Amino acid sequence: MLNGIHHIAIICADYERSKRFYTEVLGLKIIREVYRLERRSYKLDLALNGHYVIELFSFPDPPARVSGPEAVGLRHLAFSVSNIEQVVAHLKTHNVTPEPIRTDPYTGRRFTFFTDPDGLPLELYQV
Q1: Which class in CATH covers the domain with range 74-127?
Q2: Which of 9, 2, 11 is nearest to 46 (CA)?
Q3: CB burial readout 82-114, b (16+ within 10 A) else e
Q4: CATH architecture of 1-61
Q5: Taking the complete model, does pTM exceed 0.85, yes or no?
Q6: Maximal CA-CA distance, the chain
Q7: Is 82 within 8 Å of 127 (Cβ atoms)?
């Protein structure tokens, strides 16, 4: 059956802004970037620690999507971190303001949420 999650696909409103966010702020590495003329769309393949994880797409005039934390659909994308305070401090140097750090009452793990340039909810989860 299933072996694992291969990748997450994200459609962004401003390709260059999101490309900078995911590469310069979050530190993902570019595997491949292609422009698909027939779709007037970029596709950017990104890796985290050598693992292919995100496909970032641009499309002309994509429709807005409800992205509230309790909306139906994918709730958020979570990144595991070793030192949540260090990552929060790094994000703040890039004008990204995470929510206050919380502790999961069931697991005892610390976590926080922030958003990408299009308002996609992202989580840091300390492991």
Answers
A1: alpha beta
A2: 9
A3: eebeebbeebeeeebebeeeeeeeeeeebbbbb
A4: Roll (3.10)
A5: yes
A6: 49
A7: yes
**Which has the closest alpha carbon to 81: 33, 43, 124?**
124
| Span 19-48, pLDDT tens digits | 999 999 999 999 999 999 999 999 999 999
- Burial class of 116 by CB neighbour count within 10 A (0 to 12, 13 to 18, 19+): buried
User: With contact defined as beta carbons under 8 Å apart, do 118 and 77 qualify?
Assistant: no
| Ramachandran quadrant class, 91 (left: phi over 0; alpha: psi -120 to 50; beta: rest) | alpha
Q: Is 106 helix (H, G, I), strand (E, B) or coil?
A: coil
Closest CA to 79 of 58, 106, 54: 54
Is pLDDT at 63 greater than 90 in this prediction? no
Which segments of 22-118 does DSSP mark as H helices, in order?
Answer: 84-93
Domain residues of the chain, as ranges? Answer: 1-61, 74-127
The residue type found at 41 is: S
3-state secondary structure of 113: strand
Here the tokens at position 107 are 């697991």
Structure tokens given for 65: 């999507």
